[in-house]
Here is the input.
Amino acid sequence: MKAIIQSALNQAKLTDIQMPTFSPISLEIETKYAPLLRYDLLKLNGTITTTSPQIMGYGGTGAVTRVGSLRSNSLLHQKVLVLNPWGTFQEKIISNIPPLVIPIPDNVALKEATALVGGADLALTLFKIIKQKDKQVLIYGANSVTGLVLMQLLTRHTDINFIPHVRAISKTYLNERMDEYNIEIAPNIRTNSRLIIDLAGPAINEKLFKHFAHGDEIITVVQKNTPGMQFISRPALPKDYQFLMNEIQEKRLFIPINRTFSYQDFQSAIIFQQNNPSRGRNLISFID
Ligand SMILES: NC(=O)c1ccc[n+]([C@@H]2O[C@H](COP(=O)([O-])OP(=O)(O)OC[C@H]3O[C@@H](n4cnc5c(N)ncnc54)[C@H](OP(=O)(O)O)[C@@H]3O)[C@@H](O)[C@H]2O)c1
Here is the structure.
């Protein structure tokens, strides 16, 4: 079967690989879509250390095509979201870890479910942290997939005041999405104390250091080991994805999706993502 592998630094290629062994605890999933994440590109360019060769991707969606004898037969033909630390940019995924396969309800589109990985899940983690603090929130990189989901969760489920920040080229896009998704900013500012959320990274450090000097608390999901900032990275649980899918079903949550590229055209996807601002999640399609 075909897979997209990171073969070396800055090198990815489409290649034939052997199907992994199928055991009684396995599920075989025919891949439909996988999200292309900033994380995948950071591994490719060496910013995040990784080993090569390896199959790219961490999340994906598809249909279950084979069920091991120790797994529930009701999963056969089910649409699922799958997390696979051994890669998802491949035509078929063999999953051996039951909690990492999450059924997708009928009225959630495969593309929407795919785009929950690596953005909406992170937004939910941040939402849980923010809810526990009585602070005004400033969100840098608010037009990111994570930022747009976080602001929807804050709008629908809290009255916390937040202020979105984006760079000039992303202002129109931010305003359009905020209108479309009915993102509203609650007027009440409860305390003078502020919480800064960094979704953009080192390019905005000058601003972040000014906040630090003012005594603001800073949470980053991008920069590890940076003085004055708390780095957050936590795995989402199946119930988190179920919550997000329920929000989609109830039309309380909208997921920004940009372009979908065929797996044969994955090099164009990488170049497109490297050279364009965030306008929603880009997806790799494995549907022929
Ligand atoms: N800690 C974790 O566990 C974890 C998990 C998943 C993701 N992440 C990180 O979380 C962040 C959000 O993820 P995402 O997928 O939602 O991101 P995304 O949609 O790709 O958006 C990236 C954001 O960063 C901004 N940005 C990038 N380069 C910038 C620059 N030079 N100056 C100013 N702003 C810049 C973008 O602004 P423009 O659109 O204007 O370029 C955009 O707002 C990413 O940095 C990602 O790597 C962390």
The pocket of NAP is lined by residues 37-39, 118-119, 122, 141, 143-146, 166-167, 169-170, 199-201, 203-204, 221-222, 232-233, 277-278 (CB under 6 Å). The chain has two domains: 2-115+256-285, 119-231. Residues 119-231 form a domain with the Rossmann fold fold (CATH 3.40.50). The mean pLDDT is 96.
